[in-house]
Write a structure and sequence with these properties.
One of its GO terms (biological process) is methylation. It holds the Pfam family N6_Mtase. It comes from Lentilactobacillus raoultii. Keywords: Methyltransferase, Transferase. InterPro entries: DNA_methylase_A-5, DNA_Protect_Modify, S-AdoMet-dep_Ade-MeTrfase_prd, SAM-dependent_MTases_sf, YtxK-like_N. By secondary structure, the chain is an alpha/beta fold. The protein folds into two domains: about 90 residues, DNA polymerase, domain 1; about 240 residues, Vaccinia Virus protein VP39 (Rossmann fold, 3-Layer(aba) Sandwich). Helix content is about 45%, strand content about 15%. The chain has an eight-stranded mixed beta sheet, sandwiched between helices. A two-stranded antiparallel sheet has the order 5-6. The longest helix has 25 residues. The protein is globular.
């Protein structure tokens, strides 16, 4: 990243942060709620809607006058918004489900997708649990840059605040997207796409009634929401299309995995399971992996061998690059043959 780009990220973050803190103070509300309002007004250009008075209103007016969207590329804007959301999580002590997928992981997923779909003129992506939209927009921007395709984008999110953050982020980055403010498990009429990507929520889904149409639902008690999400997502992939999911490394070692494995047979091929470095997680039990599924049909076949392994430390650039080369070789020789 160039010094110029880093400066632009800092400059846009500074605008967001200073304005958000003014709104937070004058309106006596959370940093997160204030940030959502600020992002909305940055997009619309209507700073009067923030309802600030006195010197605060003048400060914001001056900052907005200095901001020209055309001076920034989408990725610069995304990174600045990401910094502001991370500050909101820290300041407001927000629960874990607001945590943002690290850019390094988004870049790895984007890299693998780019390798598979290089040469395609059209591509469609769906995230059934998009959160703030950071993973989806990071991959979108990477694909635009690396293989020069502008994917059509869809995302689903049930949480009000996260949906607003995502919608504003897409708008500010000038990324057209079809967004659904709904509970994914309640049969959202989402499009059928080439690729689904998601940093899945982990835990139990509380409303058993909504899971009745799912093969991955638990036989007794609540069902794992990440199992249900995987099934929903792959049901919305074209034949031969792919799913990239961040899942617990121990996904197949739980008692509930039996239903998931049963559903997978005949519906999807497990093409890869790549554990992420231990250093990214507080303890071994929290470790996650990138799971690669391919929907049965079209030209899809079971790769042999399946891509299994663990990423080296992201800090070890040489070992990390070597691992990416191994993924490249596997794609060419085993996955795409």
């Amino acid at each position: 990243m160039s010094v110029l780009t880093e400066g632009q990220i800092e400059r846009f973050f500074s605008l967001l942060n200073e304005t958000t803190e003014l709104v937070q103070k004058q309106r006596d509300q959370s940093y997160l709620d204030s940030l959502i309002e600020v992002l909305d007004t940055v997009q619309s250009g209507d700073d009067d809607s923030l309802g600030l008075t006195g010197t605060g209103a003048e400060q914001v007016r001056q900052r907005y006058a200095e901001f020209d969207r055309e001076d920034y590329d989408a990725e610069t804007l995304r990174k600045a918004i990401q910094m502001a959301v991370l500050k909101a999580i820290r300041v407001d002590k927000i629960q874990a489900n607001y945590q943002i997928t690290p850019d390094t992981i988004a870049n790895v997923i984007g890299y693998i997708i780019a390798g598979i779909f290089n040469g395609r003129s059209q591509l469609s992506l769906l995230d059934p649990a998009m959160g703030t939209g950071n993973l989806l927009t990071a991959i979108y921007n990477q694909l635009v840059e690396s293989i020069h395709v502008q994917p059509s984008i869809s995302g689903i999110e049930n949480d009000d605040a996260m949906f607003e953050l995502a919608a504003n982020s897409f708008d500010i980055q000038h990324i057209h997207a079809e967004l659904f403010h709904e509970d994914t498990i309640q049969n959202v009429l989402a499009p059928i796409v080439d690729v689904v990507v998601s940093d899945l929520p982990i835990g139990y889904y509380p409303i058993d009634e909504n899971t009745k149409g799912f093969s991955t639902r638990a036989s007794t008690g609540h069902s794992y929401v990440h199992h249900l999400m995987i099934e929903f997502a792959m049901d919305h992939v074209k034949k031969g299309g792919y799913g990239f999911f961040l899942v617990p490394s121990q996904l197949f070692k739980t008692a509930e995995a039996k239903q998931l494995l049963k559903w997978m047979q005949g519906n999807v091929y497990l093409q890869g399971l790549l554990n992420l470095p231990n250093e990214l997680f507080q303890n071994k039990s929290a470790q996650k992996a990138i799971m690669i599924l391919q929907k049965v049909g079209g030209n899809a076949k079971q790769a042999s061998p399946i891509m299994l392994g663990e990423f080296p430390s992201f800090k070890d650039r040489s070992a990390f690059q070597k691992f990416l080369t191994e993924i490249d070789d596997w794609q060419k020789k085993d996955l795409l043959q």
